[in-house]
Task: structure prediction
Amino acid sequence: MEKTNCFLLSISLLVNCFMVCLSSSITNLTTDQFSLLAFKTLITYDPQHVLASNWSSTTSVCNWIGVSCGLTHVRVTALNVSHFGLQGTIAPHLGNLSFLVSLDIRDNNFNGNIPKELARLHRLKEIHLQNNKLTSAIPSTIFNISSLRRIDFTNNSLSGRLPIDMCNNLPKLEGLYLSRNRLHGQISSTLYKCRELQYLSLSFNGFDGNIPREIGKLTMLKELYIGNNNLKGVIPLEMGNLPHLEILSFQSGSLTGPIPSFIFNISSLKSIDFTNNSLSGSLPVDMCIHLPKLEGLYLSWNRLHGQIPSNLYKCRELQYLSLSFNGLDGSIPRDIGKVTMLKELYLGNNNLEGVIPFEMGNLLRLEILSFQNGTLTGPIPSFIFNISSLKSIDFTNNSLSGSLPVDICIHLPKLKGLYLSRNRLHGQIPSSLYKCRELQYLSLSFNGLNGSIPRDIGKVTMLKELYLGNNNLEGVIPLEMGNLTRLEILGFQNGTLTGPIPSFIFNISSLKSIGFTNNSLSGSLPIDMCIHLPKLEGLYLSRNQLHGQIPSHLNKCRKLQYLSLSFNDFNGSIPREIGNFTMLNELYLGMNNLEGSIPSSIFNTSSLRIIDFSNNRLFGRLPFDICNHLPKLGRLNLSWNQLEGHIPSNLYKCKELQDLSLSDNGFNGSIPREIGNLTILKELYLGRNNLKGVIPSEIGNL
Result:
């Protein structure tokens, strides 16, 4: 009997304990559900209707999309609503999810601040708030969650300073990502107390001061990004103590002094990026001896000098080498041909000279080859055009000579950009260019190329930008160019092209710029030339032999910003429709045979910066309120016409006017005193008119 009573008592205790535990579990899970429903109520936009249709009090919170629960305590342990496109603010109620281990709301449009209540999540290991629109300071209490291993607030608008003692309570933190915010102040010297830190990203903020020396105590660090801040000073020697460092990125700062040699002794490094600083000195001769894993070396836009080390080939994994915009001199080392893994090579804008070494033909993985703005001489070796992996070749502004191979494109199936402008190349443009089927950018201007434009260029159907100007090209514009339906920029200035401009040019709807300045093109412009040019921003046809009237439908090129038709033989009147442009910046109609009055609508085009109608036969008076709507006008040239009447006194309202030329007309009356208010005027021409009276004393204010 006693045993039976004892057994029944035990059962009763177990049942009661189970009921209490079950009651506690239900209560706590209800708390989690309430917290998430509160989070849902602050969502103002749910484009995929995920929360609206799935998060319901009629179903278990553990079955909601984006919610995970633990098996032991049946509590919410993870919330992941990333990439849902949600808008709203973060509910402070999330701080009640006391078993939460992972919070991930990245890639949404959350705004407002980060709730300080999140600091109550004492089990939290990962918090991902990146790629939102969060503002204000980061609550300092966030850095008191000792369980945190990863904090990612990248790409928000968070402001303020980081706490000095931010790492005092983060013994497990492995990743801290705060890039692309508006943080400022100095980088805390106590970062070293985050002893497990492997990934530190603070770039694209407003941090200032020096790089703290204590950063050298973060001996577990693998990736360090602190570029694009206002950091200055030298690279601290203590950084040589980071034996596990793989990525070192300090671009776009104000770092000075030489690059410490110890940097090149950190054998774990895969990427070194000091782009756009003020680093000086030369590169060590043996810089690659201890960098067996280096894949990227980015040192462009500094003040480095000396020769390029010949032993670069010992960086056997090097794929990206950028040394442009420095003061490096000497020749391109032949041993660069041994860096056989190289994909991208930037050596331009230095003082390099000599020829392109033949050994570079061994770079069979090379995709981008950029040597612009140097003093390279000799012909372009034919092997360059045999590297089939190449996507871009840029030798702009050197002294390269010779002609281009007839079969230049046979082995370049991936080439997208060929930039050879401003050299001393001669001969004809190869007709086989069309075999570069991926070619989008072709720049051959400012050379000595002759002959005609090859018809087969019309087969380069991927072409977006074409620059052939400033050569000795002659003949007509081939009709086949009408097939270039992706063309955006067409530049043929300063040649000897003849014949009319083919009408198909004006049917290429992708065109943004048409440049035939200074050729011998003739004929008239089509009346409907702008019907198919909705994207055109620049039309440059000056210094040709064009005639006829200026089409009145020009205003249908609604995005036109630059219109240059001067030094031709256009006649008739200036179309009043030109005054309908809303984006026009520069208008050149000088040196033609235009007559009639100037349409008053032109002086209502508030975007205009330059108006040049000089050397025509325009007559009539200028509007008295000529400058009421020209706040940006910097140059007004109406000289050598037949204009009359008084010079408008309100010219002073063109506050930005620097060049005013009204000479050789029939203006009468006196010089308006108000011209003296044009305080930034540099050039003033009023001669050979019928002006009388005294020179206003106000002119002395100029």
About this structure: The chain has a mean pLDDT of 93. The longest helix spans residues 2-41. The two ends are 120 Å apart (CA to CA). The longest strand covers residues 76-80.
